[in-house]
Amino acid sequence: MRAILHCDLNNFFASVEMLSKPELRQVPMAVSGDPNKRHGIILAKNYKAKAYGIYTPETVYSALKKCPNLVLVKPHYEEYVKYSKLVNEVYKKYTDRVEKFSIDESFLDVTESINIFGTPYEIAYKIKEEIKQKYGLTISVGVSFCKVLAKLGSDMKKPDAITVLDEETYREKTDNLPVSMMIFVGKNTTQKLEKMGIKTIGDLRASNKYRLVKHLGKQGELIHNWANGIDNDPVKYYYEKYERKSISKGITFEADKDNYIELEKEFLKLTSDVSYSLRKEKFKGDVISIVLKTADFVSISRQKKTEYTNAYDDISKEVLELFNDNFKAGMQIRYICVGVSGLKKSDAEEQIDLFSLVEDNKQKK
Q1: What is the DSSP code string of 295-309?
Q2: What's the number of CA atoms in the CB half-sphere (13 Å) around residue 214?
Q3: What are phi and psi of 159, to 5 degrees?
Q4: What is the C-alpha separation between 301 and 293, in angstroms, rounded?
Q5: Fold of 246-344
């Protein structure tokens, strides 16, 4: 049985800022793109600010309406990168299988480390305490037998916490959680599931896989598997060399844009370029992503798991959904990007399963 950890630095940007300015711990504070601009975006906040209902990415204008005394701090990205590297060096002391998921999140496979450092929980505790003592930062750790449940575990309890979801307890501990807590289950997927009467992870686990595939395609099968603890995705080595992982296309505008229709057209142009490149290089991908960078140089990155595709219609549909979910009125956008990752050669033999055959036959009738 594998032992997988997901380590998530708590309120990372805000926590780093509070290291150099401890007085910020005593007040509601947030890291934002530009405190002097109404359309600046909240990047991170401390728990005192969270108590006011402030979330990311929210406009500064909206956050200040909730909390007029909110202290705003500009971001220092070089510091975030520095501490991210330092924390990952701690992870590497316990295993060479450390896969960065983002600047503040990493997966660790500690299966081979148990005989040296103790149980998975003990390893998680040692890592958590070492980071706290060395750098003054806290992490939440999910401990499980697969990546998707380890990620879910780290989200269940924050800050400075460890949550174990093992084979005996993961069902009981997650049955009543909202289905939106599952990785890659975003706003639109959550709405579709709720229309099907699926509101909790327990509902998803008990649902009919054929029905999910009918309404959500391959993603339905995937999230059903994940809810049932079926996830064999390996944790990569920290220094593993990858083949090409993504194809993307971006554009920086000469003047900032805030018009939804204009931005939508630009996203479709980029999607056309990406789709063409995928077909030209004989790739398909199953993760579609967008980036919105504001006039404050704040980047909002979002992605969605989908079926393998290189078709313009498929990609543009997901791109526009992501854009619609994350663009807020008043945003001034200077840069956008469309990407497709999780690549495989499109002429590679694809596994044909029962669900694919069922759907294909339905479409032909």
Answers
A1: TT--EEEEEEEEEEE
A2: 9
A3: -95, 175
A4: 9
A5: Dna Ligase; domain 1 (3.30.1490)
Choosing from 17, 99, 105, 221, the catalytic residue is 105
Mean pLDDT, range 282-296, rounded to an integer: 91
The Cα–Cα gap between 15 and 103 comes to 13
Domain boundaries of the chain, sorted by first residue: 1-174, 176-227, 246-344
- Which CATH superfamily, name and number, covers 176-227? 5' to 3' exonuclease, C-terminal subdomain (1.10.150.20)
- Would you give the DSSP letter of residue 243? S
DSSP character at residue 240: -
Give the residue among 344, 326, 341, 253 at the shortest CA–CA distance from 289: 341
Cβ–Cβ < 8 Å for 57, 33: no
Whether 205 shows a pLDDT value over 60: the answer reads yes
Omega prior to 75 cis, within 30 of 0? no
> Three-state SS for 175?
coil
Q: Is 327 helix (H, G, I), strand (E, B) or coil?
A: coil
Length reported for the chain: 365
Q: Is the dihedral of CA 104, 246, 150, 240 positive or negative?
A: negative
Tokens 């148990």 locate to 114
Give the Cα-Cα-Cα angle 11, 15, 16 (nearest 5 degrees): 125
- What band does 242 get if pLDDT is binned at 50, 70 and 90? low
CATH class for the region spanning 1-174:
alpha beta
Cα 213-229-191 angle, rounded to 5 deg:
45
pLDDT digits (tens, 9 = 90+) for 39-49: 578 989 999 99
Phi/psi of residue 45, nearest 5 degrees = -150, 160
Q: How many helices (H) and strands (E) does the chain have?
A: 15, 13
Mean pLDDT to the nearest integer, 104-127: 97
Would residue 105 show up in a list of annotated catalytic residues for this protein? yes
**What is the pLDDT at residue 37?**
55
Q: Would you state the pLDDT for residue 349? A: 42
pTM here is 0.71
pLDDT digits (tens, 9 = 90+) for 331-346: 999 999 999 999 988 7
- Contact indicator for 221, 212 with CB cutoff of 8 Å: yes
